[in-house]
Structure formats: structure tokens, C-alpha cells
């Protein structure tokens, strides 16, 4: 027979529920603060690795942040003639013209998207290797990018080789764009590409014609 009266048992249950609510509230508060700190732009407080060791995860809300879309990637090329002359750097476009119906049907976006992914992969490999070219120039993304440059660079009859540069541009506080070269290739001999590169929609039409 219980020595506690119904009111006593109810008070004990209320106390337990109150303690549980306080504990859950404290946990949610700590988790919320940790999530806020984890998602700060400077990333000084990154708890993801530490919390994952105990089976807890902190949401990452940097889907498009902290600086969404502020950096542009550019693919520049230049050619070297047999007489030793060198052309100016010119940019190979990464984007393509989008017709009005592209919202519903846009197969022409696959090539530019693949090229963009290649450039991002080469940039990532370069940054992980400390900017060294020797450790990335035999990687599949780099070789495919070489082939793309061979296919689409403006090559004349006297062109002996071409060279490409991956450039990143970021706006500064004054509204100007800061240019940062990330990868500069060696001279690429002009000849038949070893791979396929990234074909444009116009190339596909020419092949099928």
C-alpha cells in the first residue's frame, strides 16, 4: 500500500515532468546555440566533427552561404605559334545561350554543366595539392579539360601549342573584382585530343549532319 496520497503522487509526477521539460528545454537551447555558432560565416565555431563523435549532428544551413554565388570561374586560353609568338589570353565561355523554352526542355545545358563540374574538380584538386601541377595533371578531370581546350581554342595553322588558365574572380568591398589565378597549365601540344572533351550542342549538330 502506497504511503503517498493521490495529491502527493500527482505532485511527484508534476515535479518529474517539470524536470524533464527543463532538461529538454535546456538541450534544445544548447543545440540551437551550437547550430547558430556552427553556421556563422567565419566558421570559427565548427562543432560538426566534435558532436558527430557522440552521435549528435548540428544542422548546416549554409546551402547557398555564407557568400552565395560571389565567385565566378573563368577558363582562359592562349596559343603559341611555331615562330614563338604568343597570343593574348582569351576566355572560353562556360555558359550557353538559353532559348525561351529552356525552362521546359534544355538539353544544351548538359555540356556547360559538365564543363563547370570539370573546372570545379580541377580547382579543388589544385587547392588540395597546394597548387602543385604535377600531382593533378594526370587526373581524369584535368585530362578532360585539356582535351576540351584542344577542341575549342582558337587554333590557327601555325599554332604549335595552347595553354589554359583557371581564374577565379570575387567582388571586393569597393565593388571591384579581385582576380586570382588558381591553375595554369603547361603548354598543350596541338593535335588530336586523347579524349572527347566536352562537346557543345553545335558540335553534336555538326556530327549528326
Word description of this protein:
- Helix content is 37%, strand content 17%.
- It has 209 residues and is of the alpha+beta class.
- The protein has 2 domains: 6-52, no CATH class; 72-208, no CATH class.
- The longest helix has 33 residues, at 6-38.
- The protein is elongated.
- The N and C termini lie far apart (95 Å).
- Mean pLDDT is 74; it is low at 199-209.
| Helix-strand sequence | HHEEHHEEEH
Summed over residues and divided by their number, the pLDDT gives a mean of 74
Shape, per Cα inertia axes: elongated
- Low-pLDDT segments, ≥5 res: 199-209
Largest sheet: 5 strands, antiparallel
Discrete helix count: 5
Cα end-to-end separation: 95 Å
Structural class determined from secondary elements:
alpha+beta
Q: Tell how many strands the DSSP assignment holds.
A: 5
Strand content: 15-25%
Fraction of residues in helices? 25-40%
* Domain count: 2
Rounded to an integer in angstroms, the radius of gyration calculated over CA atoms is 28 Å
Specify the oligomeric state. single chain
Layout: helices, strands, pairs:
Blueprint: H1 6-38, H2 48-52, E1 72-81, E2 90-92, H3 110-128, H4 140-152, E3 159-171, E4 177-184, E5 188-189, H5 201-208
Antiparallel strand pairs: 1-2, 1-3, 3-4, 3-5
Helix pairs in contact: 3-4
Summarize the structure.
By secondary structure, the protein is of the alpha+beta class. Helix content is 37%, strand content 17%. It folds into two domains: 6-52, no CATH class; 72-208, no CATH class.
